[in-house]
Amino acid sequence: MLTSGLQIYNANPVFGGREGWHFPPIGLLGGWLAGGRHWHFAGMWAFSLNLLWYGLYILISRRWRHRYVGGNDLKALQLSRNAKRRIYAWHRIAYTAIIPILLLALLTGIGMYKPAQFPWIVDLFGDWFALRVMHFLTVPLVLLFALVHSWLALKAGGDPLVDSMFFGPSPPPDTSAD
User: Fold this and answer.
1) Helix, strand, or coil here: 169?
2) What is the pTM of this model?
């Protein structure tokens, strides 16, 4: 989504108009405006369906009670001397904060894609330019979330925890006598 979005940006930069700053073409996806839009929309469908599936899973499994920030987490940040408990509280704050950011990216993207069908979305942000800026600003927020989340994971469990996110849990050590 990032590389195709930057390809779309290059066709009509948000900041500075057509003479504005452009991203270098290396690493951009799509080759031109229409190609970038095709890749962006394909990624949007995968992203949207994944977000929908995650939302349903959280609701059905009732994990939302333990996954997102609550009063206990805010208390832990203020009072707890347990470093791990504070890290877990920051994790929940990050998980809670990313949901409205992702929904904002989706809403602003729909508003840009179909402004005639959803003029209320454009009106919600004031005008077309403000809508584009808001959509563009969700990118650094998601990247910031990824960095903070990774840093917190390293602090909470180190390399074994991060490795388990990508490769699954490590097998338990063999304790049988040879």
Assistant:
1) coil
2) 0.77
Q: Is the dihedral of CA 11, 125, 123, 17 positive or negative?
A: negative
Q: CA 140 → CA 9, 126, 134, 144, distances in Å?
A: 14, 22, 11, 6
3-class secondary-structure state, position 64: helix
Q: How confident is the model at residue 125, as a pLDDT?
A: 94
User: In the chain, what are the domain boundaries?
Assistant: 1-61, 68-162
Percent of the chain with pLDDT over 70: 96
Tokens, residue 36:
């970038």
| Mean pLDDT within 32-51 | 89
Question: Measured between alpha carbons, how far is 151 from 41 in angstroms, rounded to an integer?
Answer: 30
Which residue type is seen at 81? R
Where do we find the tokens 């969700």? Answer: 138
For residues 63-83, average pLDDT? 77
d(CA 43, CA 4): 9
* Nearest in space to 3 (alpha carbons), one of 127, 116, 143, 102: 143
